[in-house]
């Protein structure tokens, strides 16, 4: 019979970080501070110099915290609910700041008391054990924990439950035969998902200058373009990770984004930061083998995407203009990598075309939130009444891209590059088909992917792209 049933007078003490939730409140609140009060970041070293308890208290004071948004472990909440139904006394015992711990306890409604850090004492490891022993008295205690800091508490507990253990806690659990609630979800798969390798397809734009300059058969050009592709892909993945960490609360309110690795707690925040740093390092290393201009473009891309993640993504219209600019930056990077001449027509077409797709993305997000969507709910600068305006602007931008393409087909530059420029004219209706179809699907509520990724995966769009490529080759090489 379970010892917890046999000892109904023994209090159960429950750790919070990594045990009750799949995350760590110190890291969670640090990113909330970055999001909500970036002007206070310079104070972090001074708070930390006064001790970890002071740091936690000052951050908790500075932020707006929603306990309902945390990634709770359902198996732990269910077990605690069953214990409470049996008449057990439950205490939330955590190293998190008391303000946060009380908010969690209030949200769950399971705990009879809260023990937490208070700005003077960091209630972790041996300090927590001393507090629990003083609180429980001679009856002893049962304990839920997950980490190396909890091993000293496991050793003195009447019944220890080890939840998703780290290496040290796992060793202790195996040697003692304690009950273990294992990790749910693959950490490696979560890291790969956080990198979003499927989004790397956007970086195929880097190859566009090589194709249009007719240098795609040159080995040096192909090698340079490949290096640029992976450099941008690694950098983009690092930014996706940062973006997800800054959007934790908003993602957890979204019906699909709440399953992302950091929002769901599958991947720990410190591991995500380490992964992002490694990706940036790999990106910069590859850039050293390319012309210095490429490294400059990559630096602009990283700076802009970081600014986008921190602030620009929440600014009305600035967000979609930035997205369109970032797509165009990929083309500029491809030009820099192979040291080709920049094309005004290509950049103008890219800007209008990707502005249309960026507006599709915002349109779809706003449509998903439905009636009553507002800034605090969407995390963007748009509200539900903007839906029609976004749609009109997106369609207009798409038509402008086709107009630029038509003017290019009739330009002197086209006649210099292609023997039969008239064979490229059908590109205009092909691009028009792609744009209008995407917008029709978006208005029907059937656009569930990033529009750029959708184009690259959709067989109808692939047929249009293939036909367009065939026309360019025929116009250039048919005698």
Task: Write out key terms for the chains shown.
25 helices, UbiA_sf, UbiA_prenyltransferase, cell membrane, transmembrane helix, Tetracycline Repressor, domain 2, six-stranded parallel sheet, membrane, 2 domains, Rossmann fold, disordered N terminus, 479 residues
Sum this structure up briefly.
It is found in: Membrane. This protein is an alpha/beta fold.
Can you give a write-up of this model?
The protein folds into 2 domains: 3-181, 3-Layer(aba) Sandwich (Rossmann fold), CATH 3.40.50.1000; 187-477, Orthogonal Bundle (Tetracycline Repressor, domain 2). 63% of the residues lie in helices and 6% in strands. The chain contains 25 helices and 6 strands. A 6-stranded parallel sheet has the order 3-2-1-4-5-6, with helices on both faces. The longest helix is centred in the middle third of the chain and has 28 residues, at 219-246. It is elongated and about 95 Å long.
Task: Set down the secondary structure blueprint.
Blueprint: H1 3-6, E1 11-14, H2 16-20, H3 25-36, H4 44-49, H5 52-62, H6 74-85, E2 90-97, H7 98-108, E3 113-117, H8 125-136, E4 141-145, H9 151-156, E5 159-163, H10 167-176, E6 179-181, H11 187-195, H12 208-212, H13 219-246, H14 248-253, H15 261-264, H16 269-287, H17 292-310, H18 318-338, H19 344-369, H20 375-378, H21 387-409, H22 412-417, H23 427-443, H24 451-457, H25 459-477
Parallel strand pairs: 1-2, 1-4, 2-3, 4-5, 5-6
């Amino acid at each position: 019979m379970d010892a917890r049933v046999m000892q109904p007078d023994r209090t159960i003490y429950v750790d919070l970080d990594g045990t009750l939730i799949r995350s760590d409140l110190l890291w969670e609140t640090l990113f909330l501070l970055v999001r909500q009060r970036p002007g206070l970041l310079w104070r972090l070293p001074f708070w930390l110099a006064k001790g970890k308890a002071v740091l936690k208290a000052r951050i908790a004071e500075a932020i707006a915290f929603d306990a309902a948004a945390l990634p709770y472990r359902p198996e732990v909440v269910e077990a605690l609910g069953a214990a409470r139904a049996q008449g057990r006394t439950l205490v939330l015992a955590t190293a998190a700041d008391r303000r946060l711990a009380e908010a969690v306890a209030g949200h769950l409604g399971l705990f009879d008391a809260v023990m937490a850090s208070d700005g003077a004492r960091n209630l972790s490891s041996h300090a927590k054990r001393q507090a629990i022993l003083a609180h429980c008295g001679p009856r002893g205690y049962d304990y839920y924990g997950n980490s190396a800091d909890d091993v000293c508490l496991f050793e003195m507990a009447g019944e220890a439950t080890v939840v998703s253990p780290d290496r040290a806690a796992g060793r202790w659990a195996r040697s003692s035969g304690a009950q273990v609630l294992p990790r749910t979800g693959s950490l490696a798969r979560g890291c790969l998902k956080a990198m979003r390798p499927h989004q790397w397809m956007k970086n195929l734009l880097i190859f566009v200058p090589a194709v249009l300059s007719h240098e795609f058969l040159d080995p040096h050009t192909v090698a340079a373009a490949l290096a640029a592709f992976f450099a941008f892909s690694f950098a983009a993945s690092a930014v996706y990770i940062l973006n997800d960490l800054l959007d934790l609360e908003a993602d957890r309110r979204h019906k699909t984004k709440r399953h992302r690795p950091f929002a769901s707690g599958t991947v720990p925040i410190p591991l995500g930061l380490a992964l992002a740093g490694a990706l940036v390092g790999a990106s910069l290393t590859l850039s050293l083998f390319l012309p210095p201009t490429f490294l400059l473009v990559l630096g602009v891309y990283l700076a802009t995407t970081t600014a986008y993640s921190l602030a620009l993504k929440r600014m009305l219209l600035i967000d979609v203009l930035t997205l369109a600019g970032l797509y165009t930056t990929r083309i500029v990077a491809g030009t820099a990598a192979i040291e080709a001449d920049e094309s005004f027509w290509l950049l103008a077409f890219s800007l209008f075309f990707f502005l249309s797709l960026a507006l599709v993305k915002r349109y779809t997000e706003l449509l998903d939130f439905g009636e009553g969507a507002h800034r605090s709910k969407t995390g963007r600068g748009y509200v539900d009444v903007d839906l029609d305006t976004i749609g009109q602007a997106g369609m207009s931008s798409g038509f402008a891209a086709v107009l630029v393409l038509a003017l290019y087909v009739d330009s002197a530059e086209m006649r210099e590059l292609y023997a039969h420029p008239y064979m490229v004219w059908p590109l205009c209706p092909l691009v028009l088909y792609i744009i209008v179809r995407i917008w029709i699907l978006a208005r029907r509520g059937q656009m569930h992917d990033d529009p750029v990724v959708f184009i690259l995966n959709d067989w109808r769009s692939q047929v249009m792209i293939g036909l367009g490529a065939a026309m360019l080759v025929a116009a250039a090489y048919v005698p």
